[in-house]
Design brief:
The chain is α/β, with parallel strands linked by helices and 287 residues long. Helix content is 37%, strand content 13%. α4 links the parallel β1 and β2. α4 crosses α6, α4 runs antiparallel to α9 and α9 packs antiparallel against α10. The two termini are 23 Å apart. Bound molecules: zinc ion (2 copies).
Length: 287
C-alpha cells in the first residue's frame, strides 16, 4: 500500500512519512459485498501522485471561500442542520464558509419541475440548478458554490431521483435534504447524512476521485446503507491530497474536528480525530 504515497512533488511541507504515521488508525478497504460500489463499478483508484498530476483546480488566495446557499423552503430545523454542517465543512477543508443570499423556490420555472409520475414526489431538475441558477451567480472569491435544498432532485429523463449532483469543472453542486430521513425522529442521523454528502461531494470538487485504498469518506457508494456505514473521516491518502490542495495544519484540523464531533454527539468520530491528533503529537523516537 506504500506505493500510493510516493510522489515526486517536493513543494509540500508534509511528506509521506507524516501521513504514514496515521495509517495504523485506518482500516484497509474491506472486500465489497455483491451489491456494493466496488463490486459494480470499475474504479482504478487515484494515488497522491495521480492527484497532483491531474491539475485539479485548487483553492487560491483569490478563490478561497466555500459558499453555501439555501435553495427553497427550509424549516428552522433544516436550517439548523445546514448551519451545523457548514461548521463541520469549514473545519474539514480548513476553509472559511460564507452563506450566499437564499434562493427562493420560485426561481425554478415550471419547465424544471415535475411531479414524479409514480411516487408523486415534487422534484426539481438538478441540471437546471447547476447550469442556470448556480453557475451564473458564482461569487468571484468562491472556490466552490454549493446549494442545499429540502426539495427532491432529479437529473433528467430516465432517472427517478438523485441525492445530489455536482459539476467538477464549474465547481458547483446541489444536494438535497429530502431523503436524509425524518429530522424530528432522528436529528443526529439527518445531520450526519447532510455532513457526509457535503464533505464527500466537496471532496470531488477538490478533484478527489473515489477512494479504493481504505475505509474512507471518499469511498463510492451504491446505496444509503453503504454510505451510512462509511466513516466521516478521510484516509491518509485522501487527506494528503486535501492538504496538498489547500495547504493546511493537519493537527489543527484534527483538533477542530474532534471538538465539533464531540459537540454534535458523533462519539466515534470525536474519538477517531482525538486519537489521530494524539499520534501526530507523539514525540518521534530517536532517528
Ligand atoms: Zn462520490
Ligand atoms: Zn481515501
Amino acid at each position: 500500500m506504500g506505493g500510493v504515497f510516493l510522489s515526486t512533488q517536493p513543494a509540500f511541507a508534509q511528506e509521506s512519512s507524516f501521513f504514514e504515521r496515521i495509517v495504523p488508525l485506518h482500516q484497509v478497504k474491506k472486500n465489497p459485498g455483491p451489491m456494493d460500489w466496488l463490486a459494480t463499478q470499475k474504479e482504478d483508484g487515484q494515488s497522491f501522485s495521480d492527484f497532483t498530476a491531474s491539475q485539479a483546480i485548487v483553492p487560491s488566495r483569490d478563490k478561497s471561500f466555500i459558499y453555501i446557499v439555501l435553495l427553497g423552503d427550509f424549516t428552522s430545523e433544516q436550517k439548523r442542520v445546514v448551519q451545523m454542517a457548514s461548521r463541520y465543512i469549514a473545519a474539514y477543508f480548513q476553509m472559511s464558509v460564507k452563506f450566499a443570499e437564499p434562493i427562493a423556490l420560485s426561481r425554478i420555472p415550471e419547465s424544471a419541475r415535475r411531479i414524479h409520475p409514480v411516487t408523486a414526489d415534487a422534484q426539481i431538475l438538478s441540471t437546471y440548478v447547476l447550469d442556470d441558477v448556480l453557475k451564473p451567480q458564482m461569487p468571484s472569491d468562491a472556490f466552490c458554490l454549493i446549494a442545499f435544498t429540502p426539495s427532491d432532485l432529479w437529473p433528467g429523463q430516465g432517472w427517478n431521483f438523485v441525492f445530489g449532483q455536482a459539476s467538477i469543472e464549474d465547481r458547483v453542486g446541489v444536494w438535497s435534504l429530502y431523503r436524509n430521513g425524518d429530522i424530528s425522529k432522528d436529528f443526529h442521523l439527518f445531520l450526519r447524512r447532510t455532513i457526509q454528502t457535503g464533505t464527500h461531494e466537496i471532496g470531488h470538487l477538490f478533484g478527489l476521485h473515489h477512494c479504493i485504498y481504505y475505509e474512507c469518506n471518499m469511498n463510492g457508494s451504491n446505496s444509503r446503507h453503504e454510505s451510512d456505514v462509511r466513516p466521516l473521516w478521510v484516509c491518509p491518502v485522501c487527506l494528503r491530497k486535501l492538504a496538498w490542495a489547500n495547504k493546511m495544519d493537519i493537527k489543527k484540523r484534527y483538533r477542530q474536528l474532534a471538538d465539533i464531533s464531540k459537540e454534535f454527539g458523533f462519539d466515534q468520530e470525536a474519538k477517531f480525530f482525538a486519537d489521530s491528533l494524539a499520534v501526530l503529537e507523539e514525540k518521534q523516537g530517536a532517528e
